[in-house]
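User: Um, any thoughts?
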Amino acid sequence: MSTARFTLDPAFTIGTVDPRLFGSFVEHLGRCVYTGIFEPDHPSADEAGLRTDVLDLVRELGVTAIRYPGGNFVSGYKWEDSVGPAEDRPRRLDLAWRTTESNRFGLSEYIAFLRKIGPQAEPMMAVNLGTRGVAEAIELQEYANHPSGTALSDLRAEHGDKDPFGIRLWCLGNEMDGPWQTGHKTAEEYGRIAAETARAMRQIDKDVELVACGSSGQGMDTFAAWESTVLQETYDLVDHISLHAYYEEHDGDRDSFLASAVDMESFIENVVATCDHVGARLKSKKKINLSFDEWNVWYMTRTDAEVSALDWPEAPRLLEDVYSVTDAVVFGSLLIALLRHADRVKIACLAQLVNVIAPIMTEPGGAAWRQTTFFPFAQAAEYGRGEVLDVRVDSPTYDTERHGTADLLHATAVRAEDGTVTVFAVNRGQSESLPLEVALNGLELSAVTEHSVLADADPDARNTLTDPERVAPHAATGTVLEDGVLRATLEPLSWNVIRLG
């Protein structure tokens, strides 16, 4: 097997990693909230009904910004239903997922959940621009953020939250380009309401940070034209535009699945080009950044049948994909794609946090455990902080049906403030190990402190309720740093974290 190579040099960088690149997503969908993060009758539940076993895993995962309450759910969301005494909150039909929402967990509970995770957890609140509009958005903003002395801020205090929630980061709707979205709009319609809402929210607080809806995927018929039209209306009013992408293995085509990040990187680069084209057309020096606020491996082809069979139950089991080693390797490659574009991708939200296509699973009344995808995310969140170095690989390649010719090696590297460097690397090859050589120029590094690898003789191995620790990272052997060159062997179909000190 030919050797894969690249060079690291601190003079050549991509950008600084925004901590919010390691965000996640809590939607009122399936069991993400109920029996996921919130289960008052669970043995581990605290006084607020939050599962402390889940809180421990969320902290270990290292998530930062947490987007809420949707997702498709938000386009039918009445924020007023989610505040005040829980016993007085109305039950509503959720059109997005054909379920019934009890509203027992609402805005105050969401903020309490974030505060219990710790100071790294930042609220990222979505407003309903599907069935509602400007008035409801600014009323929610006033309720959440205004200190006191108005009807809505005083109502928040009456509800037991004297201190403002301090929500700075807001999504202006969700996937409004999608015909599946309640209140779906054309680009012109959405661009206008997004601009009007942004303008009004900035009248309350000029420093809010706003995310406009981009395309729900690169495959949408309106892709790029949608971004161009929306940004024509909102360019000077918003800070980010959103991207959403999910990947799955189709018809046993694992080679293409393993190269999913080729599509993700193309998506990012095409959106950046579109944003900059609009900026040039408007003669603006401002740069719009990207919020990749939904991404994951998701076996979506199963979802339509699941949802259409529902008859308005409360918190059913939905989208509970059980992830394999292969899924985790693809997942890690998607993380690498985000890091490789840290100059423009400033926010990213793994969808979702618990039970629903999630790294953490729970059983009602029972255990919580880590899926295979938990490990790449936790490692990237811990060691992927700092300056992303420019990695240009010279790698053996292979052919895929969906993504053309792809490199067997997918990699990036991050240099921390203390000068240590972490290399994140995926070997997409299914059957052969991949030798790796990395030349280190101008980096004061002398030793390999760790080489962790996630791989398994069974690429379909999974962690389950009955076998929750079947898959976990293990230490690699034979990795050395000598004479300014890192040498390692990447196992077949593997996610690798190599730390250099």
In short: Residues 260-281 form the longest helix (22 residues). DSSP finds eleven helices and 25 strands in the chain. The chain has a mean pLDDT of 97. Residues 146 and 489 are 56 Å apart (CA to CA).
